[in-house]
Structures are given as structure tokens and as C-alpha cells.
Write a structure and sequence with these properties.
Length: about 350
């Protein structure tokens, strides 16, 4: 005869306790998985906010350095909300103690309650404490150390943008043989105006601050640049503006194929008009009144020149050459370093 055994009440009770314990463990593990995902998502939003705030604040500080100590925090706050799902992010601090750097620290801010911690965490059911998530980003403002650009270099004697100015005076910069000589900020006697760089037929020249650049032997407009200058002309005619970054030279020497410029740094020139040759399109464009603002800036007859003004300019995220090695001539590269 088969013996039938039955579990005791104690055994059934032990199973119930085990199931209850396992349910708590499973709920805790599930809550942790969901909450960790929420924390990572929140931190990603906060990092995006910190990155955007640091970059934007650095750009504003470069444009208006006198306002930076007072306005840095409001500038950063303007850029953070759009990077959060609830439209709210706390800016804990904006650090300007390191020259030419902006560090922004962000943290959780609930857009509905204003709480400084994450809400609706599953772990709250297990009496886990609320979580505050934060992020930091640092943007650096660096002068250009090099560039690959249009093959025209401007004399240091023509550069007129000080550290506090956003734009310089409109001026006519003539081809160097017609501009006499002057003394650069480095103390060298150099030809004024501008000169052509050797472009090897490509309409670009690669230069580095503090280094020597080979010059072109002639005064003629490089034929390889026709398409680029035509693009300048079309942009201006369409109501846009043309801003080109040129190397600035503070010493010169040699003759013919041995001519050279010593590159001091890089400045951005907002171009109004030009006369790169005796006539024709696009070599000559808006070189007379009323475009040039003053009869003194007109470039007619045998004149070869470019008309415009130096401006402050920020390259965001990237630039040619090695950053940070040249002087700040109003044109900088702004990038995140951490």
C-alpha cells in the first residue's frame, strides 16, 4: 500500500516566508535596475546641459569680457533648461578662476516641485534616500595656433582690434609694396598692407603661429581663388556677410622665391569690398563709395586692396593647427576639455 505524506503547517509557513523574502529581493533588484537607468538618463541630460552652458558662457565671455564676472551665471542658466525632459536644471556654480576657462556644474532640479533630487524612484518604496545627480563641464578659450585658409596675410601694422573691442574701424588695406613700412608690435620694420602666400595653386595656405610662411612672388590675384572670391561676392549680394580669418605677420624678409613672413597669429576680417587686380569680376567688387564708408577707403585706379574691419570671432569646437600657441588677436577656438 502506498503511503501518503502531507506537509506540516510549519513547512507551509516556511515556504510562505521564503516567498515573501524573495519577493522583496526581486522588487529591490527591479527597482534598482529601473532607478539606475533613470539616474544614468538624468546624468546624460545634466552633462548635455553643462556642456552647452560652458560653451555658450565661454563664447559670451570672449565677446564681452567686461560683463563676464557678473553675467556668467545667468548666461549658463539660459542654456540648461532645454537639455532636461522636465525643462529644469540647476546650475550650481560657474567657475572663472582659471584664466580663459569656464567650468559649469549642474545638478538635478525637478521642474514641477522644484526639488533638488530625482522623484518617482521605485527604491523610495524600500525607504531608500532620494538621489541628486550632477555633472560638470569645462570649456577653454584658446587663440589659434595655426590655420589652413585663404592665402592672404595682413601686416601687424594694420591690425587694430584691441582686447576690449568687438569690431575695429573700417579700413583699406593695400597690397604691401604700396603701403610703405612700419614697426610691428614685435619691433620689426615690416611692409604694411597685405601680401599673398604661396598656395601651390590650391587657394589655401597652411601656416602656424610663430613660424615662417613662404610668400607668393607676385602681386597678382591667384587664379586658383576665383571660385572662393566669387562665393564671397554672391554672399554679400544676397545680404550675407563674409568673415575670413587671415594670418597676421610681424616680420618679413627675403625676395622673389625666397620671400617669407613670420606669422604672429590670426585675426578675422569682415570683408566689405576688394580690388585684387585692375578690373573684372570677381577680382574687383564694391571698392568705391558708398560701400566703403569713406572716400579714404576707396581703392581705385592702380590700387590693389581689401576693405573691411577686424572683428572678434569664435571658432566653436575645432580649428586648424595646434590650438593655444598664438596670441589672442580676437579670434579664438572654444572647445570642451572635460
Amino acid at each position: 500500500m502506498r503511503r501518503v505524506t502531507r506537509k506540516s503547517e510549519k513547512e507551509r509557513g516556511a515556504a510562505g516566508v521564503l516567498v515573501a523574502v524573495m519577493m522583496v529581493v526581486l522588487l529591490g533588484a527591479g527597482a534598482m535596475a529601473v532607478d539606475v537607468g533613470q539616474i544614468y538618463a538624468e546624468r546624460a541630460q545634466l552633462q548635455n546641459a553643462a556642456d552647452a552652458a560652458a560653451m555658450a558662457t565661454a563664447q559670451q565671455c570672449h565677446n564681452t569680457p567686461a560683463d563676464c564676472p557678473i553675467q556668467a551665471l545667468p548666461w549658463a542658466q539660459e542654456m540648461t533648461a532645454g537639455n532636461s525632459n522636465d525643462g529644469a536644471t540647476a546650475v550650481d556654480s560657474v567657475d572663472l578662476t582659471v584664466p580663459n576657462q569656464v567650468t559649469v556644474a549642474t545638478s538635478t532640479l525637478n521642474g514641477t516641485s522644484g526639488a533638488g533630487f530625482l522623484t518617482q524612484l521605485f527604491a523610495n518604496a524600500l525607504n531608500a534616500p532620494p538621489v541628486t545627480v550632477g555633472a560638470r563641464a569645462t570649456a577653454v578659450i584658446e587663440p589659434l595656433g595655426g590655420a589652413t585658409a585663404f592665402p592672404l596675410a595682413i601686416s601687424d601694422c594694420q591690425y587694430d582690434l584691441s582686447g576690449a573691442e568687438e569690431t575695429g574701424e573700417v579700413q583699406l588695406i593695400k597690397y604691401k609694396p604700396g603701403s610703405g613700412t612700419c614697426t610691428s608690435t614685435s619691433g620689426h620694420v615690416i611692409p604694411g598692407g597685405f601680401g599673398w602666400l604661396d598656395d601651390s595653386g590650391t587657394c589655401v595656405a597652411t601656416t602656424d603661429a610663430g613660424d615662417i610662411a613662404d610668400t607668393d612672388t607676385g602681386a597678382n590675384f591667384p587664379g586658383s581663388c576665383t571660385a572662393i572670391v566669387t562665393g564671397w561676392r554672391n554672399t554679400i549680394l544676397a545680404g550675407g556677410s563674409v568673415e575670413a580669418t587671415f594670418p597676421v605677420y610681424d616680420d618679413a624678409g627675403g625676395t622673389g622665391h625666397g620671400g617669407w613672413f613670420h606669422i604672429r597669429g590670426y585675426a578675422t576680417f569682415k570683408i566689405i569690398g576688394w580690388a585684387f587686380s585692375g578690373g573684372g569680376t570677381p577680382e574687383v567688387f564694391r571698392e568705391t563709395m558708398p560701400w566703403v564708408g569713406s572716400p579714404a577707403n576707396a581703392c581705385t585706379g592702380s590700387c590693389r586692396g581689401i576693405i573691411g574691419q577686424f572683428i572678434r570671432f569664435e571658432s566653436i569646437g575645432e580649428a586648424g593647427g595646434t590650438p593655444g600657441t598664438g596670441p589672442d588677436l580676437g579670434t579664438v577656438n572654444i572647445r570642451l576639455i572635460r
